[in-house]
Amino acid sequence: MSYGAAAAGAGPPGNEAVVRAAMTAWRLDAETAAVLEHGDLRALLAEGDPAVLGAGLELWDPEVDFRVQIAATEGACHGHAGLVRFLVDTLEAFDRFVPDVEMEAVGDQVLWWGTIHARGRGSGVVMDVATAALVDVREGRIVHFENFGTREQALAAAESS
Questions:
Q1: CB within 8 Å of 122: residues ≥ 6 apart
Q2: What confidence tens digit (pLDDT) does each residue in 33-59 have?
């Protein structure tokens, strides 16, 4: 996973570090997928217990509004339970899910953009999907994450807010 340098002088210091730590904690690559296959995390996630997410969970506000590209059809994820649902769905659909992203401050928000490299669990189909999100951090926790698909769309949303 790669992360780009921050834009100088924009946004509160530490917001990008919070986002970076949250995304790193939950990356799903070949190594972590192997652990998941042989461990109990998938079963625990399926039970819906947010505590199984460990240290990564403390970086997300308990009432976080999490909107990814599938939110248009499946609705936004809300709170820790919504994050668990997203991870369960992701683990069921993909055996590899690795964001390769850059980050930069845009005002008080963090722009998170790049490509998600994924492989379908059953099909083996490899996908490279453009991704770009605006992330709001308050008091050291992510309170809002919204994916717009492309960097240009995310920037336009930031400019209109």
A1: none
A2: 555 554 455 555 655 555 556 667 788
The model's pLDDT over 74-109, given as tens digits with 9 standing for 90+, comes to: 667 899 888 877 877 777 788 777 788 889 999 889
C-alpha dihedral sign at 57, 44, 1, 157: negative
Rounded CA separation 122/159 (Å): 40
- Rounded to two decimals, the pTM is 0.76
| pLDDT score for 55 | 61
Nearest 10 degrees: CA dihedral of 37, 44, 84, 101?
Answer: -30
Give the tokens for residue 60: 């997300």
DSSP assignment of 82-149 equals HHHHHHHHHHHHEEEEEEEEEEEEETTEEEEEEEEEEEETTT--EEEEEEEEEEEEETTEEEEEEE-S
Query: Which residues contact residue 87 at a Cβ distance below 8 angstroms, ignoring those fewer than 6 apart?
Result: 26, 45, 53
**Which of 33, 42, 16 is CA-nearest to residue 103?**
16
* Residue (of 141, 147, 137) closest to 6 by Cα position: 137
